[in-house]
TrEMBL record:
A cellular component term, taken from the record's GO annotations: membrane
DUF5935 domain mapped to chain residues: 1-193
Protein name: Wzy family polymerase exosortase system type 1protein
Domain O-antigen ligase-related: 208-359
Transmembrane regions: 39-64, 76-97, 103-121, 128-146, 166-188, 243-260, 352-371, 410-430
Species annotation: Sphingobium cloacae
Principal subcellular localisation of the protein: membrane
Nucleus found in the keyword field: no
Pfam families documented for this protein: DUF5935, Wzy_C
Length: 454
């Protein structure tokens, strides 16, 4: 029954896409974020729905979309260079079979990120993509938020609709993504036109934001707690009432502690000392190994090259027995540990050049979005009042994701490439609008009865 529902839902979406071609782009975004094939028992697993959606979306754009003034931005060129470099490192990878498996989905995410901005030609399309990203992710977030509220969740315990612990269904990743979406959710609740702002829209938005905040609690992901702190700091910095909202945030955080599960507070306490937690200690060791590896292999080792790492680290922990409690030091040897950081993931797999291109894409995007925010601030009451708040929301979400990716290997996740494409699309849309405005002829001066201009 579930397979038939998903098949019918996607089939209907595809049919609507033939009438409104941009919906085919939205369908691909839905497939990338929700991965309905993972929720299916058989039917969708046997159909290449992702490839079908992408071919239909690009075909509809080529046949029906207006391609006037359609140009690649500098960031799309950088994404194309990154795609080519990843292809090269895959061909020369230390682990060819494992690298080919990861490449099979990374190239699709990069291609879609390069293609997506050229389709975002109107404000409605930009808003529609932001809305789809929020609603698709909310299918996972609401499920996780309700289970957390009812059962409390747990590290590696909270089931997010599937048992496959990868993509957005992994605890740390969905926690990071959920918090990064909060600014976009709030923007849609205030400036959205697909669902105009009223008490119902705002009520749903605030409830969804609360579910986003519950994700780090339910998954017990320390990354999520760091993301919450980062977002709270950025929002407080932009607030006009810092001395009112700051203490209120602190009181709310302290008041929530008694309601949190004991396992959550105990796990969060390990942030203070990485040596007391094996997971954190191995991350530090892997990062040191990566730096040493790239010194010898400046071009990187290709996807999944962490499989060859081997290191020894010191772990300290409190041991309690009949003789009392004491701190015990252990020397631990480990192998094949994942990077657990997007930055070291890029550095180890793509080397110095790949890391530079990837970092440049994010830096340029941040700077350009900040320029948009500053250029369009103070436009309240005009038709451009939505621009600066959207730029700020995307910027805050981007920064939260990048802070969270310090501790999670999510450098190639399709979600962040969609967020980058959304910021590129906003930039190119505004550039096109300014160019069109500059091309308009000056208003003709009134002509007097004698035939001479006044």
């Amino acid at each position: 029954m579930r397979d038939l529902f998903f098949l019918g839902f996607l089939g209907l979406f595809f049919l609507l896409g033939f009438r409104r071609p941009f919906l085919l782009v939205a369908v691909y975004a839905y497939i990338d974020i929700v991965s309905p094939q993972r929720l299916s028992y058989f039917l969708l697993n046997s159909i290449p729905i992702s490839a079908i959606a992408f071919l239909l979306a690009t075909g509809a754009w080529l046949l029906t979309d207006d391609k006037k003034d359609c140009r690649f931005s500098f960031r799309q060129v950088l994404l194309l260079i990154l795609l080519g470099w990843c292809a090269y490192t895959t061909a020369t990878a230390d682990f060819p079979i494992e690298a080919a498996h990861k490449w099979s989905w990374v190239w699709k995410a990069l291609i879609f990120a390069i293609f997506l901005p050229v389709t975002l030609r109107t404000k409605l399309r930009i808003e529609a993509l932001a809305l789809f990203m929020v609603l698709c992710a909310s299918a996972i977030i609401i499920n996780g938020g309700m289970k957390t509220a009812l059962s409390g969740g747990g590290y590696g315990v909270l089931n997010l609709m599937v048992d496959n612990n990868s993509g957005l269904y992994e605890g740390s990743i969905i926690s990071c993504v959920a918090i990064s979406l909060i600014p976009v959710i709030l923007w849609l609740s205030r400036h959205g036109t697909v669902f105009p702002s009223d008490w119902r829209v705002k009520g749903f938005a605030y409830a969804l934001c609360f579910a986003c905040l519950l994700m780090p609690v339910g998954t017990e992901a320390r990354t999520g707690l760091i993301c919450i702190a980062a977002l709270a700091g950025m929002m407080l910095m932009r607030s006009k009432r810092k001395f009112i909202y700051g203490p209120l945030m602190l009181v709310a955080a302290l008041a929530s502690i008694p309601f949190l599960p004991d396992s959550f507070t105990q796990r969060m306490s390990t942030i203070e000392n990485h040596q007391s937690d094996e997971s954190a200690a191995t991350r530090i060791a892997v990062w040191k190994w990566t730096i040493d590896y790239v010194k010898e292999h400046p071009g990187g080792g290709g996807f999944e090259n962490y499989l060859q790492n081997s290191f020894t680290y010191v772990s300290r922990g409190i041991v309690s027995d009949s003789g009392g409690s004491r701190v015990e030091t252990r020397i631990v040897t480990d192998r094949g540990r994942a990077y657990h950081s997007a930055y070291f993931e890029l550095l180890g797999e793509q080397g110095y050049f790949g890391f530079f291109i990837w970092a440049l894409i994010h830096i340029v995007t941040f700077v350009r979005t900040e320029m948009i925010r500053r250029a369009f601030r103070g436009r309240e009451g005009t038709g451009e009042a939505w621009i600066a708040p959207l730029a700020l929301a995307l910027q805050q979400g981007h920064v939260v994701y990048m802070i969270g990716s310090l501790f999670v290997g999510i450098a190639y996740q399709p979600f962040i490439f969609m967020m980058l494409a959304l910021q590129i699309g906003l930039d190119t849309y505004l550039t096109r609008k300014r160019r069109d405005a500059a091309r308009r002829p000056m208003i003709a001066r009134p002509v007097l009865a004698t035939g001479h201009a006044a």
